[in-house]
Design brief:
Helix content: 25-40%
CATH class of the largest domain: Alpha Beta
Strand content: 15-25%
Largest sheet: 8 strands, mixed
Number of domains: 2
Length: 376
Amino acid sequence: MSKVYYASARVKKWKYSDSMPGKLERLLKEMGFSERFGHGEWVAVKTHFGSEGSHRVVRPVFLRKVVDALKAVGAKPFVTDTVRIKGLDYLEVANENGINHLSVGAPVVLADGLYGTDNILLKAGELLGEIAVASLIHDAPAMVVVSHIKGHILAGYAGAIKNVAMGGVSASHRHCGWKCGRGAMHAVGAGMLVWDSEKCELCYQCEEICPLECVKFTEEGKKFGYEDERCWRCGRCARVCPGEAVRLEGASDEMFMKSLAEAAKAVLGTFKPGKVIYINMLTEIQPECDCMPAADVPVIQDKGIALSEDIVAVEQASMDILRGSVPLDGSAATERGISPGEDVLFELYKKPYIIQVEEAERLGLGKRRYELVEIK
């Protein structure tokens, strides 16, 4: 049974040690960094940089605490993510969201290069076949995964598994393109965009949101089209369509979540046992992914921080902590009539998000049974 260390977001004493940054410092000490990370060892601090307009990412102050803890044992950390939009633009977004060398105390780099194609193909399982793991994550001897917990239109719940799976894999490979990248998880290798002209309102949001500018309306702006070979299958165009005129056909909910576990296993398989720890920030729990161009108000009150060396245990614990939370007034949760005591994230999208954790356990990534150790 794995231990999951937890600190509540509640502050009951007006002391630094009772603040969230102070509690994170104490949680990190529980993990024994000096026994895990060697002097001079490079350590990837994997997080999500957010998006222009999406500001509810892990705050730089928390990333800085992780970096400082690694430096204190002589390790050499770098903060990283994979390319979500064009690389130079993504670094600018990170800076806008406060994630830069000055704020976090370590280099901020893209794990798969400025073009998002610096990666290595690895075997990933029955659903995905091969997957393009970002080179810096593949080559790094150790990693700390810092995840912002939130809802997700396809996964229902997005945490450490999704951060490792989609965040550790490139959008595209030089030769097999999106079919070996994170788009394969969205469409499990064979997806395509489908347009229904009768439902289309010609609002052009799908064209505007495409990170690769490969969605174009032709014939005087009245016919949807996209560049099949360049498309990453990220699904943003389908997500923003108000009339559901654009669909990304491919994976079912079950296949998508199982593919997340497969990709996570491929990424984590590049590390030796005990060289990866997971920090789940259960704060600003909004209903959408941080890659969208806006951030909605949180649907659940801040809960705290969960930390473990077991990705399955920390995800199960985080889900258990969130389940049954009171939906916040004025959020998407109360707008949809979700009542106190209901599973807010499940009710938002009706996605059986537990599948990703069950599959990760089946694949040997950890155990769902855990001991919760609360740090007061």
